[in-house]
Structure prediction request, 224 residues.
Amino acid sequence: MRIAPDDLTAAARIRHAAIRCFAREGFQVGLRRIADEAGVSLGLIRHHYGSKEDLQAACDAHVLDLVATMQEQRVASNDVASTMMDQLLMSPELVVEVHYMVRSLGSGTAAARTFFDTLVESARVRLAEGVAAGIVVPTADEAARARYLTLTGMGGLMLAFGLSAGADPATVWNTYVADTVGPALEMYTDGLLTDPAALAAYRAATGAPSPPSGPESSQRPMND
Prediction:
């Protein structure tokens, strides 16, 4: 999934330059700086995108589409594990997109909240597809699970980049993958708690829904 800048349209070159600038310098960066990065005139940016806000919205849409595509690829793959590992070994261009997500979510703006909500909905849809495909365990509350996984995943990334301010984004990403993927996969696959009492108490106290009934929702046997 490498990007060949010479093959991109002017609008796409501007968008990718904006993603690089926003990721590297934050959303206070000006259009003139983005024009220099893209090698185009300021007028051409205004021709294609109008305003900085509209350009940021286009960047958001592009990155969210990329996330959805990668999620779809994992669900549809005949070899989910290999597809996931291929995606974790990101090209430098894709690491920039990840860094952009961190910048966007950390901006605290209305656009950031919309960005997060879109990530949650995309995760909910893909998890539901995973349940239907038999590769994800059903849950009593798909929306809550999607929100939790998005909060923990993106929150971890934000913390990783925040603690490594100024470091090479690819190094930050590779360290984050090394620190989190193995423990996360073990926990998601084998579970963490041996006693369901805490979950039962939480459901009783809050009225949270219980798992769906039926053979497809039966609990997996505990590992020896």
Remarks:
- The mean pLDDT is 86.
- Residues 61 and 115 are 9 Å apart (CA to CA).
- The domain at 56-190 is CATH 1.10.357.10 (Tetracycline Repressor; domain 2).
